[in-house]
Automatic annotation (TrEMBL):
Name of the protein described by the UniProt record: Shikimate dehydrogenase
Signal peptide: none
Domain Shikimate dehydrogenase substrate binding N-terminal residue range list: 6-89
GO biological process, one term: chorismate biosynthetic process
Keyword terms, alphabetized: Amino-acid biosynthesis, Aromatic amino acid biosynthesis, Oxidoreductase
Length: 252
């Protein structure tokens, strides 16, 4: 039976298995296709799961393995290599190839959400704060480059290419009207957590996007909306990147 799977740890927050199970049902493939969860804390276990499922044709990769999976793959396409993270794996003729559909999903959904909320989609020359520096943040940064935007990473520990949360003040927020959370802060089950931002300094000119979609409205988005900022979660991104993954697994 053609098998697909999600690799990550933990996976209690993820809707991927539900999404593909529903997709298979809609396509009349429920009896012939399946989507499994490979909840593995150590990415090296990927090889064992592959061996146990010889009918495995593709995988999605989620936190915390999007970067660690790269050296375990036979090939990585040029976009994923440039980003430095993989969220989709195609298995064909015994070889694994890594791709990144996160950046496409985020880019297209960001534009769709801005459009739906009556905001400008002309983003060239504007700037965004990217909260977090993991694999998802790498994909987001690539998408922002595609849109002609500047970006500033934010992390708990500063560095040459990032600032700390403590450095975010009114001046920084005036320069960065888009704020994207790529961290797991606020994800189910720890739904009361939120990035430590000065939310009282946000206003109607800001737009906050959270890659988290479970819960549908994180504390980050709640606090942003309370200040009049635009807000959107990552469910649309999930759907778009999942469809892009399906096309990679089933090339015409």
């Amino acid at each position: 039976m053609p098998t697909f799977a999600l690799i990550g740890y933990p996976l209690t927050h993820s809707f991927s298995q539900r999404y593909f199970t529903d997709k298979f049902a809609a396509m009349g493939l429920s009896d012939t296709h399946r989507y499994l969860n490979f909840e593995v804390a150590d990415v090296a276990e990927f090889a064992q799961r592959r061996a146990a499922h010889p009918d495995l044709l593709g995988c999605n990769v989620t936190i915390p393995h999007k970067q660690a999976i790269l050296p375990l793959l036979d090939e990585v396409d040029s976009v994923a290599r440039r980003i430095g993270a993989v969220n989709t794996i195609r298995i064909s003729e015994g070889r694994t190839t890594g791709f990144n559909t996160d950046y496409l999903g985020f880019r297209d959904d960001l534009l769709a959400q801005l459009r739906a909320q009556g905001r400008s989609t002309e983003l060239r020359g504007t700037s965004a704060l990217v909260l977090g520096t993991g694999g998802a943040a790498l994909a987001v940064r690539e998408a922002l480059l595609d849109l002609g935007m500047n970006s500033q990473w934010v992390s708990r520990r500063g560095g040459a290419d990032r600032i700390t949360y403590a450095a975010i003040d009114q001046t920084v927020l005036n320069r960065h009207q888009v704020i994207i959370n790529t961290t797991p802060l606020g994800m189910h089950p720890d739904t009361q957590a939120a990035p430590p931002l000065p939310y009282h300094l946000l206003g109607s000119g800001h737009f906050c996007y959270d890659l988290i979609y479970n819960p549908a409205e994180t504390r980050f988005l709640q606090l942003a909306r309370q200040r009049g900022a635009g807000a959107a979660n990552g469910l649309g991104m999930l759907h778009l990147q999942a469809e892009a993954s399906w096309k990679i697994w089933n090339p015409e």
